[in-house]
Design a protein that fits this description.
four-stranded mixed beta sheet; 5 helices
């Protein structure tokens, strides 16, 4: 009545192996979903395609960001995602100080200061935006929120992203 069958021993060994395999698969699954680069691209495109001045913010769940005038890439949680931008050229504004007056001015405009209070004229504003688009597009630490602002200054229409 209290004898151990050989079949029961094999069943317990098999069950233990399946349990270990299941635990291994569960441990290998990512802890969080990959960053949402397509959602960020949609936010940027919706503001950049607008003919009127507008502003939007998009929360980021990523460790690093690389923003160019034609794409956005996010890296975090062991995954990297990338999305192309359909909108006309956007102007990436770095969050850190580069020591240039143009970069500081664009950051102030992105934060909400009118461009005529920062720049001497539309030509200077356009030159600063062109310089920011031609800058380096390296990976940078991602902020918690990405700000997108469509700005008009005279005949100059710029979409700032930072």
């Amino acid at each position: 009545m209290f004898e151990t069958n050989l079949d029961a021993t094999y069943a317990w060994i098999g069950l233990a192996m399946v349990s270990v395999a299941t635990a291994g698969v569960a441990a290998a699954l990512p802890a969080s979903p990959p960053p949402d680069a397509s959602g960020v691209a949609h936010t940027i495109d919706s503001i950049a395609d607008n003919e009127y001045p507008a502003r939007a913010e998009h929360g980021l769940a990523a460790d690093r960001i690389r923003l160019t005038d034609r794409s956005v890439a996010l890296d975090g949680g062991g995954a990297t995602t990338r999305a192309s931008l359909r909108a006309p050229l956007i102007t990436p504004v770095p969050t850190e100080r580069r020591g240039t007056a143009d970069g500081d001015g664009l950051r102030r405009v992105l934060a909400g200061v009118p461009p005529d209070a920062v720049f001497d004229g539309p030509e200077e504003f356009a030159a600063a935006a062109e310089g920011a688009r031609g800058g380096d597009h390296e990976w940078r630490p991602a902020p918690e929120r990405l700000t997108v602002r469509r700005v008009h200054y005279g005949e100059v229409h710029v979409t700032l992203v930072g």
